[in-house]
């Protein structure tokens, strides 16, 4: 009886010892994937924001500007691209909708982000776009990869439509959680006007004809729980 | 000999479990019917 129990315990010990590395290095890379049917929304608010009035071409300060950002996975589009890409693909449609204090549209920028479900490497396929224009992402956007490391990454900026390094800065503690701090600076860059303009009768072309150009800069910071 | 067989059974069970889980994969689900928002959603 004792011998039998010993053999069962031995089998269990081997089972557990083998299971641990198999789950980490075999199962995890194959099973950890971004859900194809993701849906999330986020609301950002800026108080005392400065807006450009395209009607009068003057700036004005408003009490509040709201950005509603939605991300929605397109499962069917992902499956179609998977057939040609030969790997698990996620397609996210995003909309950044900006509204003024009166609730009226200031800008709306749709985009389509296509990436590998496991590694988050960008996948280049028809439909990859920002505001209706084809783009080529060479880095991540919106989400950080699983097991984020203390190193620089490439991050895509949708306004400038360029991929640039985002630098690992430090490890910090945020509300008791260990986080990695990353930072990216996009220098002043000439960017296109949004396709949808907030004033009726004014188009990106008509604004461009006046000799007006649009420039953009930002500092982007992330605190990522690895 | 019996010890070896017991160890083999433990290893085979671990491999079978991991390969089965991996073959099943993660569920893909369906595209959400909810729209891309142009208004501030109500607080959950």
Give an overview in words.
The complex is a heterodimer of chains A (226) and B (44). With 226 residues, chain A is of the alpha+beta class. Chain A folds into two domains: 1-31; 32-224, no CATH class. In chain A, 21% of the residues lie in helices and 45% in strands. Chain A binds chain B through residues 3, 7-8, 10-16, 18-19, 22-23, 26-27, 30-31, 33, 35-37, 39, 41, 43, 66, 68, 70, 72-76, 78-79, 93-95, 97, 99, 103, 105, 108, 110, and chain B through 2-3, 6-7, 9-11, 13-15, 17-18, 21-22, 25-26, 28-32, 34-41.
Q: How many runs of DSSP E, i.e. beta strands of chain B?
A: 0
Unreliable segments of 5+ consecutive residues of chain A: none
Tell me about the largest β-sheet of chain B: none
- What value does the Rg of chain A take, in angstroms? 23 Å
How much helical structure, as a percent, in the residues of chain B? 40-55%
Element pattern of chain B in H and E: H
What is Rg of chain B? Answer: 23 Å
String of helices and strands of chain A: HEEHEEEEEEEHE
What structural class should be given to the helix and strand makeup of chain A? alpha+beta
Index terms:
heterodimer, A: 226 residues, alpha+beta, 2 domains, six-stranded antiparallel beta sheet, four-stranded antiparallel beta sheet, 3 helices, elongated, B: 44 residues, mainly alpha, 1 helix
Topology:
The complex is a heterodimer of chains A (226) and B (44).
Chain A: H1 2-31, E1 39-53, E2 58-73, H2 75-85, E3 89-99, E4 105-116, E5 129-130, E6 133-134, E7 153-157, E8 162-174, E9 177-191, H3 204-209, E10 214-224
Antiparallel strand pairs in A: 1-2, 2-3, 3-4, 4-5, 5-6, 7-8, 8-9, 9-10
Chain B: H1 2-24
């Amino acid at each position: 009886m004792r011998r039998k129990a010993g053999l069962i315990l031995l089998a269990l010990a081997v089972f557990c010892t083998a299971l641990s590395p198999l789950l980490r290095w075999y199962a995890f890379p194959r099973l950890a994937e971004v859900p194809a049917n993701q849906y999330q929304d986020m609301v950002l608010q800026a108080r005392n924001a400065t807006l450009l009035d395209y009607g009068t071409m003057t700036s004005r300060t408003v009490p509040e500007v709201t950005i509603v950002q939605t991300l929605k996975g397109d499962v069917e589009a992902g499956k179609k691209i998977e057939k040609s890409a030969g790997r698990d693909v996620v397609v996210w449609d995003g909309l950044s909708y900006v509204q003024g204090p009166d609730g009226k549209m200031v800008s709306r920028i749709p985009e389509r982000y296509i990436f590998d479900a496991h590694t988050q490497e960008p996948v280049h396929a028809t439909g990859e776009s920002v505001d209706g224009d084809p783009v080529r992402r060479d880095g991540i956007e919106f989400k950080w990869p699983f097991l984020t490391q203390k190193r620089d990454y490439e991050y895509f900026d949708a306004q400038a439509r360029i991929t640039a390094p985002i630098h690992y800065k430090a490890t910090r503690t945020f509300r008791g959680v260990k986080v990695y701090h990353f930072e990216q600076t996009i220098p002043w860059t000439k960017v296109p006007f949004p396709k949808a303009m907030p004033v009726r009768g004014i188009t990106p072309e008509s604004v461009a004809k006046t000799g007006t150009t649009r420039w953009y800069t930002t500092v982007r910071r992330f605190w990522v729980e690895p | 000999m019996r010890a070896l067989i017991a160890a083999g059974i433990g290893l085979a069970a671990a491999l079978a479990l991991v390969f089965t889980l991996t073959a099943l994969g993660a569920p893909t689900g369906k595209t959400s019917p909810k729209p891309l928002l142009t208004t501030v959603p109500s607080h959950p």
